[in-house]
Amino acid sequence: MTKSSMAMAEDHAQRLLLAPNFQPDIDLLIREGIAAFGVKGSGKSNLVALLIEQLARFFLPMVIFDTEGEDTSLVDFLPHGVLATAGHMPSGRDILEHGLQVVVDLKSFDCEDSAAIAMTNLVWGLIHFAEKQDPADRIPCIVHLDEAAFWLPQRAAEYLCKSNRDTLLDAFAILASRGRKYGLVPFLYTQQISQVHKSAIRQSGILILMRQMFDTDLKRYAEYFPLDADRKEQIRAFPVGKAVIILPDGTCPLVQFNERATVHTSHTPKAMRAVARFASADFTYTLPSEPEPASNMIFLAKQGEKLERVQQEQLTSSLISDVLTCIEKRCAKNEPPTVRDLTRFLKKLTSGQIKSAVTDLLNAGLLDEHKSAHGVRYTLAEQGEALG
Ligand SMILES: Nc1ncnc2c1ncn2[C@@H]1O[C@H](COP(=O)(O)OP(=O)(O)O)[C@@H](O)[C@H]1O
Ligand SMILES: [Mg+2]
Known about the structure:
The chain contains 15 helices and eleven strands.
């Protein structure tokens, strides 16, 4: 693989110190945008943090959509670091005017749909404000999205309703096209290249290809640079932090990324923790007589509340009869309706509609009602399988 001039910026002051042989000009990255791929453990999150640390040397405004809660330790490190959570989000204007470096804790939202809506609003907020700014006042801003395939999936996703998925995809596609002219640049990081929506990565000028295992993903890699059988094996065996970089000048240096300076909060507990915690503890435990399958339950009223916030407009279509038709069809084929069947429909409903759907389902004998001190809870009749 060739040594590239784009890989090592001529002007030392402009260099981002990412690897011994990869110290590109910060303005190259801002111009081109980045998409990085690699299986779990290939070193993506380290790369995200490393890039953020390096970009922060230039006081660049940033948004870091933090899916796993692993970037919160960056807030103290960033000169203008701010931790944003559900209900406490800065506006696009604030970010660009005050040079904020915002870590958005996506886990603080009560569901993926609300997180997706907040992300969409923030991205649009940036675009709208930058659009109105005098070109002379514009400052670049990077929007980092780790686990991009989760938020911008190639196919429909269970956890995001279609309209929220579509609007988020649109927001990122427009950020990458129109936003780019205003200095707004997405940096995307994800595991499987084959699972992230193509429209999201089409605009990225710099690709970072880390370890990959599956042929479908290696095939996608092969669209960007020549991959013979030996190279495929090499990529399958890449150690953590190793990558091929595809640069706009067509060169593709092989690099080993530096380690991030800030602490990495690993979420995978190590086995020795169990020894330390339990080995010397007294062991007395009695099984409860009637275990409560709490994790299987959802409180429909609560879900209704959540949906009301997500769902801005009333749906006029006869979803309740859709639910019943779906259940009837299932029963006709002698397959009992699944929890997923019901929640798929329930997700689209407002709380008022859920209440009347539940009444219909109770009347049809398809749901059982359980009253307790904590409220009302519903399970599918007969199977005893809970909605959730
Ligand atoms: N360039 C690197 N040099 C040394 N260690 C690294 C490097 N990149 C990642 N690591 C370590 O390897 C582990 C997995 O890296 P991580 O970035 O979390 O991978 P991913 O996000 O792809 O799952 C972490 O413990 C991290 O500290
Ligand atoms: Mg990661």
